[in-house]
Amino acid sequence: MSLDSEVDALRKVPIFKGIEPAKLRLLAFISERMSYHPGENVCVQGEAGDSAYVIMGGTADVVVSTPQGERPVAEVKQNDFVGEIAILCDVPRTATIVAKTELNVLTISKDSFLKMLQEFPEMGLEVMRVLAQRLEKTTRDLAEVRSRLP
What we know:
Layout: H1 3-11, H2 21-30, E1 32-36, E2 41-43, E3 51-57, E4 60-66, E5 69-76, E6 81-82, H3 84-89, E7 96-99, E8 103-109, H4 110-119, H5 121-148
Antiparallel strand pairs: 1-8, 2-7, 3-6, 3-8, 4-5, 4-7
Helix pairs in contact: 1-2, 4-5
């Protein structure tokens, strides 16, 4: 994938909208390109979070450990951004990301991501919006599960 195509792909990621192309080019340049085969882990629940990931192609499952075993809780696909919770909150990874298909990602280091947030407050607002939507969905799902309990 060329740098220009990576910049075009980053432009389609909601949290990067509004970022000027030159800054997206820099972000693409300093990011690491990685590929994963089906079944390979991108990151593992409980590990330290040192990077976030932009899904450039393919799909992956978001899996959490429960007392009943591993449970998929979501699927991520092209243009999704994952792994930011661990680097924003300085907590261990909250889930494992497992490639479902051939998966291509841009890996953005914690330092690079935090610098982008400092430079572009609008990006921080979009991150908050995405996290709030995830929290709302999780709250709704939890309420549904609790309503089915005796």
